[in-house]
Amino acid sequence: MSSVNNRPLTAADLDAFGAELDALRARHVATLGDADARYIRKIEAAVRWIGVAGRVVLYAAAFSPLYAASLLWPLGIAGAVLLGLSKILENMELAHNVMHGQYDWMGDPSLQGKTYEWDIAGTSESWRKTHNFSHHTYTNVRGMDDDIGYGLLRIFPEQRWHPFFLMQPVIAVIFALYFQWGIAIQDLRIGRLFLGRITLRELWQQSQPVRRKVTKQLLKDYVLFPALAGPFFLTVILGNLVANGIRNVWTYVVIFCGHFTADAETFPKECVENESRGHWYLRQLRGSSNLTGGKWMHIMTGNLSHQIEHHFYPDVPANRYAAMAVEVRQICARYGQHYNTGSMARQFGQVVWRILRHSLPSKPKGKQAPLVSAPVA
User: Where would I find the Fatty acid desaturase domain in this sequence (predicted)?
Assistant: First the structure.
């Protein structure tokens, strides 16, 4: 549990808090228009052309032994980095935000939240279920938000300890490197198989969409594009592998910084019973963490550097979050609520500390009252 002291809020305070945040959203939604459309189309173009550049450079590296063998490594690294940047932009600033329905108002079939399919092993359909619905509705509610540790890690002391968690410092590193695969199988809840709640045959049937998407991704990155390089295919395979790894690690770091810092809190299931709008905003605030940085930092994180604003307004175009954050911070200050923000180094350092600390057994916490510092008058 966070050690931050937040001012206790009355029922009237909570209603006013929620009303102010609702009003902020309404003001921005009312002014959506051409500038927002141009922004996302620029991101879409950047994803496409940076990706093309990365693949062209990778092919130049692959064929470099024919004209300048010394260029193999420099070109290979440059191509992998460019392709990785394209994949980061596609996943975070384009796909993630589009799938939240942030650009449905444009009426562009390629930018519709319910039909967009992203360049990752997991299906968009499963992501919309586990992330858009479960995570954003029940943010950091134990037993309802599967993103708390993703079923692999103990990050909060309220999570029950098992000897398995002694391995989590190693598991955390592996999870970062293969993050897209963890996301791909998250909704399958494979643990049910070991608990006898589902048969292997049932799990196999339920995994069909994921298996189909995984096959498509593997063929694209590790068969089709490498085949175009002929006998020099290995360079392209390695470049794609590195690009996916860059995207996986960056996404992992950004997401973990947004939810698992020292001041982030988890909540019992009881807190969502008859939850008011103000309480919902307060829970999102207490369970989220922001990252400081400049324009490019915000773009490369998909504006999840403004995780608080994203949890408040998941369907508002993310390019608006920087402006909204100024007012959100002022509103939080007026109501005496901590606004959790810091550099990526600082926030991720806290995440690493949580992973290491809570891999070890600790005394169980007493029963946590729903939002203990927000009593209803």
Answer: 73-341
